[in-house]
Design brief:
CATH topology of the domain at 89-106 and 222-425: Rossmann fold
Bound molecules: pyridoxal-5'-phosphate
Strand order of the largest sheet: 3-4-14-9-10-13
CATH architecture of the domain at 89-106 and 222-425: 3-Layer(aba) Sandwich
Largest sheet: 6 strands, mixed
Structural class: alpha/beta
Number of helices: 19
CATH class of the domain at 89-106 and 222-425: Alpha Beta
């Protein structure tokens, strides 16, 4: 399988090259040249373990890592999960909840970043090179990226977060990791400052090349691919129904894009339901075809406080008939004017998707309802998904809602919704009082570059 860019100026990459490149060098996103149809193989997938299923799905897209090596990478990646089913499906009322939070940092990002860390390790060992991973985080991505590469040879990881602005628990999940290859950087500034530092450093191509900078954000194809697998697992755990709906709490569109790939592979997903908080650029797009930037609101589901979803470009590429020129034009118009429109013929323009947004108040009410009615604790991101799922559920089609984090990660919102209810997780409790390490710096490009130079 070869990879190409949505912008048309990069092609013929192998999987390993695509992983190391991250964002395509022409500014686009990398996609496989074709999507294999596995609809005939679904019955054979039925009784596979999660790791076996992951191998069947991923090996279609990874043709440059040997079978035994790829199996070893997959096994190692999911051995760190605390549940034997890796992503167990629970039926709560009318909704099936796919719990994606049993990895080391209790968020669904572990499913992809445990795998990506091991893929990096494999590639670097083989090529004898090393990388410096640089990332910016408002919370979940940073700790999952650190957990994916801590202690690994030939990799250093530098994670920038806004000093004092991530939740104390999320900060602790990062700064309590004392491995020598982990560098936590508290930036005096906002998350936007961290992201703009990241962009500026990556755009200095000379620095990027001489220090082998690599990215772990959700545009990396290996992350999307790892996420495709659990849609198949949900289907198996439901008993392989004729069709099913999936509801996805959405921010950067990485998670739901993986579902869209699974659907194109022949998995019988009827509708992909996009649930957003009040940052509703996607919900507006799927109603109108108009993609228009708004201001970022801060909500109870902070990992979804995103206006411009980086993975959306991959979806657009398919909608624009894989025409790189049209896609480039759309993205150019959007970046220049903050607005672009996709024209469509039918009355509702994309039958594969449904989208809706949820207020903070509804989020809190859903957390309360699921605790009071079912004695089940849902985190605020999952609650956004469930709120939308309840509104659009079709009685004849089973519905799976993805649960993206363990509620104990967001204990402040949980306390607001459920005063007096203890919401904890042992792997967070053990971190309290641990020794921590971080560097606090101003939002200064040169200072960060110096830090990278000095710690080689
Ligand atoms: C990252 C994250 C999301 C958003 O996922 P995308 O792939 O960016 O759409 C939702 N919930 C939680 C808890 C997250 O950490």
């Amino acid at each position: 399988m070869k990879y190409q860019s949505t912008r048309g100026k990069v092609s013929q990459l192998t999987f390993k090259q695509a992983v190391m490149m991250g964002l395509a060098s022409d500014g686009g996103l990398l996609l496989p040249e074709s999507i294999p149809d596995v609809s005939q193989c679904l019955p054979e997938f039925k009784n596979l373990t999660y790791a076996q299923l992951a191998y069947e799905v991923m090996s279609l897209y990874i043709t440059d890592i040997e079978e035994s090596e790829l199996k070893a990478i997959i096994n190692k990646s999911y051995a760190t999960f605390s549940h034997p089913d890796i992503v167990p499906l629970r039926t709560i009322g009318d909704i099936n909840i796919l719990e994606l939070f049993h990895g080391p940092t209790l968020a669904f990002k572990d499913v992809a970043l445990q795998f990506l860390g091991n893929v990096f390790e494999h590639i670097l060992k083989e090529s004898g090179s090393r990388v410096n991973i640089l990332g910016a985080t408002s919370g979940d991505t940073g700790s999952a990226a650190i957990a994916g590469v801590r202690g690994k040879d030939n990799i250093d990881v530098y994670i920038m977060f806004p000093e004092g602005k991530t939740s104390p628990l999320q900060e602790l999940q990062m700064t309590s990791v004392l491995d020598a290859n982990v560098h936590n950087i508290g930036i005096n500034g906002s998350f936007d400052d961290c992201q703009s530092l990241l962009k500026t450093i990556f755009s200095d191509l000379e620095f990027k090349d001489s220090y082998q900078l690599a990215a772990v954000n959700s545009v990396n194809w290996a992350r999307v691919l790892a996420q495709v697998v659990y849609y198949f697992s949900a289907y198996n755990q439901l008993g392989q129904p004729k069709k099913f709906d999936v509801c996805v709490p959405t921010g950067n569109f990485g998670n739901v894009l993986a579902g869209y790939i699974a659907k194109q592979m022949g998995l019988p997903i009827a509708r992909l339901i996009i649930a957003t908080n009040s940052n509703d650029i996607l919900a507006r797009f799927f109603r109108t075809g108009i993609y228009e930037r708004g201001d970022v609101n801060f909500t109870h589901s902070p990992a979804m406080d995103i206006q411009v979803a980086s993975n959306f470009e991959r979806y657009l590429f398919y909608k624009l008939d894989q025409n790189a020129e049209k896609l480039t034009e759309f993205m150019k118009k959007f970046s220049e004017t903050g607005r672009a429109e996709l024209r469509f013929n039918s009355e509702r323009f994309d039958r594969d998707f449904v989208a809706a947004s949820v207020s903070n108040e509804e989020t809190i009410q859903t957390v309360k309802k699921y605790y009071e009615t079912f004695n089940y604790l849902v985190d605020p991101h999952t609650a956004v998904g469930i709120s939308v799922a309840e509104k659009v559920i079709d009685a004849d089609v089973p519905l799976v809602c993805l649960s993206t984090a363990h509620p104990a990660k967001f204990n402040d919102v949980m306390a607001q919704a459920l005063p007096g209810v203890e919401v904890t997780h042992p792997s967070l409790e053990v971190l309290k009082g641990r020794e921590t390490r971080k560097i606090v710096m101003d939002a200064d490009i040169e200072a960060i570059k110096s830090l990278i130079k000095e710690t080689q």
